[in-house]
Specification:
The complex is a heterodimer of chains A (about 425) and B (about 350). Chain A has about 425 residues and is mostly helical. Chain A has 2 domains: about 5-45 and about 350-410, no CATH class; about 50-210 and about 235-345, Cytochrome-c3 Hydrogenase, chain B, CATH 1.10.645. Chain A is about 50% helix and about 10% strand. In chain A, strands 1-2-3 form a 3-stranded antiparallel β-sheet. In chain A, a hairpin with a 2-residue loop joins strand 6 (about 310-320) and strand 7 (about 325-330). Chain A starts with a helix and ends with a helix. Residues about 1-5 of chain A have low confidence and may be disordered. With about 350 residues, chain B is mainly α. In chain B, about 75% of the residues lie in helices and about 0% in strands. Chain B contains 13 helices and no strands. Chain B has helices at about 10-45, 55-65, 75-95, 110-130, 135-165, 175-180, 185-190, 190-210, 225, 235-260, 265-270, 275-305, 310-335. In chain B, helix 5 packs antiparallel against helix 8 (about 190-210). Chain B starts with 7 loop residues before the first helix and ends with a helix. Classes of the chains: A mainly alpha (about 425), B mainly alpha (about 350). Chains A and B meet through strand 1, helix 5, helix 6 and helix 8 of A and helix 5, helix 9 and helix 13 of B.
Chain lengths: ~425, ~350
């Protein structure tokens, strides 16, 4: 059927692996008829770094935390977060409540900075550089706050198995509240800039529509899924850490507009709402933070011994700024390193919706539509299927993958 | 022969040397104005921005770089397009009154000729784009053609309405810049007509932004979409020629707006008799006028808007701006009747 359509003078435009619209390498193969896209396909695999293998071959799981942190430069809270949860699950360690709260605070600070970063990039993609500079200037405040709380702007090194490495003290609270107040005061302006501007509406409304059925079928997660009206949020559905106390509600665009379209505009709404929500969560956490230790086992040597003796599998799920991030670890008794480590980042599933949302759009819509999923390639590229013995790449089709998944699910501990 | 008058040699020499001097001075000021535009935009965006002489440095650097011609390109066309673009842009400077003086070739061409000349740089850009055989450049060239055709409607309406109104009060060619300068539109019309003329001025400002190929009308070059579009395969000297041509074209377009709607000189108003002093004052006043037009038509618009899609560019010009221009024309016509 597609063959029939593409017969009339379509030509192929490769977008990527290197292209100004893409912040990280990925290849989009577009079949174009004039300005309209008739077919699209995605090819990943340009930034494969073998990071899981690296993490499994560190001396011990504590060192692997820092590898987990370096999976992605932006999500460097949610990856270690879900990694330590997986290890804690496998080794049977429970972090103290105060550590849970500090973890939630850092995770929400990351969400604010990531969403603002995305908003700036999105503005740049539609050629609105003024808004891009404005948003990134607004973002500097949270970066300063992150540096103040964790000691670093980017790789924060906050997480430890069984807790966190830095406490938030009483003296730090006024400075944190000051930043939160800044965001509360500027939020209306942000909303006005992004939701009311005529040209932004022209470029984002009814562009890159992902319907709710498609979002469910393609397992779209995170803000992209929520913008299509799928109220899925790990913090709401399976609360972890301090989120159980906080009562999180998944943000959907109908809270502002009353309807769900599932276009780029809705994705902007969801992310803006989540910035507001994150500020509120941090405030709640600061108020309700219980006193107590921040580590279950402060002595690293004792912790390492316990981890070496631990046996079993562990899962960690966290709501990253881009969606659900999932870490799986297997630990064997007497082995100091991890036996298995598997990471599934949100972009991996969100990329499945790229052909659907690009079809029927114009070439001009490609950058903003693709960016609206907030794709993060460095998180995604971890698997290359090659068969060395017969030196050719094998493709696993849907049925085969489904069969393997069912088999694997049956093996998993209930 | 009759065109050049009695003293064919002297007039010919004046035109040749005058052209060279004018293109040189016009080019230098155009580049300075691009620097000022970039600085203004940077300040509006909360950035420091490049120094005002940055365009000169860009040109110097581009001239030193290697010019690469892609394998699949139509080589001679690919190399010729930048020259045609620069020459036609420079030609514009000769037909437009600059620095408070008469246009050098003002006796040989009027505002309508300028409208046609304004098409040529865009056309050679598109030719260069098609000749470079890159899919991005092809998309860019197609967009350039669409934008070019869409722009003509409102541009023609603005200029023709002006000429038509001026033609009602004088027997001279109403499209000559000298006639337009003698009969400024503002002094011919009543209150309704002034509103109409303001609307036409607005139309022309938006056209200026499109002719300058700046955000929001830079779909043909759209960096984040098609990686520079038409210019994607150009490098070194060839890119430099396009760069200068674009700068000159923008300056020329702003000068056209000044010549059509603000053809006033300062020296008669403040009563300076000495020709040299009056020339300096008028020249500076012209620069201020062009700066004002460029600030509103280029810098401000590109700071305040996102890039349109080509379909939206087309819609804005063919439908929105054309209708707005027609409203201006009708207002002027009604003003004439009442």
């Amino acid at each position: 059927m597609i063959q029939e359509e593409t017969k009339k003078a379509t030509y192929n435009i490769p977008v990527g692996p290197i292209h100004p619209a893409l912040k990280e390498p990925i290849r989009l193969a577009l079949s174009v008829d004039g300005e309209e896209i008739v077919d699209a396909d995605v090819f990943v695999g340009q930034v494969h770094r073998g990071i899981e293998w690296l993490g499994m071959n560190r001396n011990n799981p504590i060192q692997s935390i820092y590898i987990a942190e370096r999976i992605c430069g932006i999500c460097n809270i949610c990856h270690p977060f879900s990694f330590v949860m997986a290890v804690e699950h496998a080794a049977g360690i429970t972090p103290p409540p105060r550590a849970d709260y500090i973890r939630a605070i850092t995770a929400e600070m990351e969400r604010i900075h990531s969403h603002l970063l995305w908003a700036g990039v999105a503005a740049h993609e539609i050629g609105f550089d003024t808004v891009f500079y404005f948003t990134w200037r607004v973002r500097e405040e949270i970066m300063d706050l992150i540096e103040y709380v964790t000691g670093n702007r980017v790789t924060k090194a906050m997480f430890q198995i069984g807790g966190v490495r830095r406490d938030i003290t009483e003296e730090q609270l006024p400075r944190i509240r000051q930043s939160l107040d800044y965001y509360k005061s500027i939020y209306d302006k942000l909303e006005k800039v992004f939701l009311d501007d005529k040209t932004i509406r022209m470029r984002t409304m009814n562009v890159g529509i992902l319907k709710k059925e498609d979002a469910l079928k393609l397992l779209t997660c995170g803000p992209s899924g929520r913008a299509s009206g799928v109220p899925k949020d790990v913090r709401q559905d399976q609360p972890y850490g301090a989120y159980a106390d906080l009562g999180i509600k998944a943000m959907t665009p109908d809270m502002v507009t009353g309807t769900v379209v599932g276009d780029v505009y809705d994705r902007i709404i969801v992310r803006l709402l989540e910035v507001k929500q994150a500020v509120e969560i941090i405030e709640q956490c600061l108020e309700n933070m219980p006193p107590g230790p921040i580590l279950a086992q402060p002595k690293t040597a004792v912790l390492l011994k316990a981890l070496t003796q631990a046996e079993g599998e562990g899962l960690g799920r966290a709501e990253a700024p881009r969606g659900e991030v999932f870490h799986y670890v297997r630990m064997e008794a007497g082995q100091s390193t991890l036996a298995t480590w598997k990471v599934r980042a949100p972009t991996y599933v969100n990329l499945m919706s790229v052909p659907t949302i690009l079809k029927g759009m114009q070439i001009a819509d490609v950058p903003i539509t693709f960016a609206s999923l907030d794709p993060c390639m460095s998180c995604t590229n971890r698997v290359v299927i090659t068969d060395r013995a017969i030196s050719r790449r094998s493709v696993i089709d849907y049925e085969e993958l489904h069969r393997l998944s069912v088999e694997k699910t049956k093996e998993l501990p209930q | 022969m009759s065109l050049l008058g009695e003293n064919i040699w002297i007039n010919g020499l004046i035109i040749i040397f005058g052209s060279a001097v004018l293109v040189f001075i016009g080019g230098v000021f155009s580049m300075l104005y691009r620097g000022i535009d970039r600085k203004l935009v940077a300040h509006m965006q909360g950035r420091v921005g490049p120094p005002i002489v940055q365009p000169f440095r860009d040109v110097q650097k581009l001239m030193m770089k290697e010019s690469i011609i892609p394998d699949g390109a139509v080589s001679w066309l690919f190399k010729a397009a930048p020259f045609i673009c620069l020459i036609t842009s420079a030609l514009l400077l000769l037909y437009i009154p600059l620095f408070g003086l008469q246009a050098l070739l003002g006796g040989f061409g009027d505002a309508l000729l300028v409208v046609y000349l304004l098409i040529l740089p865009s056309l050679s850009l598109a030719v260069g784009g098609f000749a470079s055989s890159s899919p991005y450049a092809t998309v860019g060239a197609q967009r350039e053609m669409v934008a070019l055709m869409s722009l003509e409607f409102p541009l023609a309406i603005a200029i023709v309405s002006l000429g038509w109104r001026i033609g009602r009060v004088t027997t001279a060619d109403p499209f000559m810049f000298s006639t337009i300068a003698e009969h400024p539109i503002w002094s011919l019309v009543g209150p309704l007509g002034i509103v109409g003329a303001l609307i036409l001025l607005f139309t022309l400002m938006v056209v200026t932004s499109g002719k300058g190929a700046k955000v929001p009308f830079d779909a043909a070059e759209a960096e984040t979409e098609i990686a520079g579009g038409i210019l994607v395969e150009y490098s070194g000297r060839n890119l430099c020629l396009f760069y200068i041509a674009d700068i000159i074209k923008t300056f020329a377009m702003a000068s056209v707006v000044v010549a059509l709607f603000i053809p006033y000189n300062l020296s008669p108003l403040i009563g300076i008799g000495t020709p040299v002093l009056a020339g300096i004052v008028d020249g500076l006043f012209f620069l201020v006028k062009v700066l004002a037009v460029m600030f509103i038509g280029i810098s401000f618009i590109r700071t305040a808007m996102a890039r349109f899609k080509i379909s939206q560019v087309s819609w804005v010009y063919i439908i929105a701006m054309t209708l707005i221009g027609l409203v201006g024309l009708i207002l002027i016509a009604v003003d004439l009747m009442v």
